[in-house]
Amino acid sequence: MTICFYMPGVRHGFEHVALHNLEALTRDLLRFQVEGGPTADELAGAPLLSDWAAVPGTGVLRLVGIVTGHPHVGPGPGTTSPVHAIDRAHAWMRSSNRLWRLGPARHVVHGFGSHA
Q: Superkingdom of the source (predicted)?
C-alpha cells in the first residue's frame, strides 16, 4: 500500500507500522479509560523501566531508565517513545509503542503526573 502523505518523524517505508501503533494506542487508551487501566496479564507481560526520570526539554514527555524485559532493547539504559498516559501511582505508563511497568523513580518531579 502506498501512503499518500508524509509522516514527520517516521522513516519512509515504515508508515504502516506507525499507523498500526497509533491504532493500538487509541484502542488501549479508550479501554484503559473504561476499565481503569491495563489488566494484570498485560502488566505482567510489559517491560519494566526502573530508576526512571522524565527527559526535560524534548517537546514531548519521554522517560529514561533501566530497561528489562523489552522484546527488542536491553537489558540496560534506555529511553521510551513519547508517553501518552501514566498511572497516577506511577505503576505503569503507555508510550506510543507499548505498555510499560514502572519501577522506582530516580527522583520525584514536582507536579509530574498530577493535574490541575
A: Bacteria
Angle at 21 between CA 16 and CA 22, to 5 degrees: 100
Provide the mean pLDDT of the chain. Answer: 87
- C-beta pairs of 103-111 under 8 Å, 24+ apart in sequence: 103/48, 103/49, 103/50, 103/51, 103/52, 103/65, 103/66, 104/50, 104/51, 105/51, 105/52, 105/53, 106/51, 106/52, 106/53, 106/65, 107/53, 109/53, 109/54
Q: What is the pTM of this model?
A: 0.82
The full length of the chain comes to 116
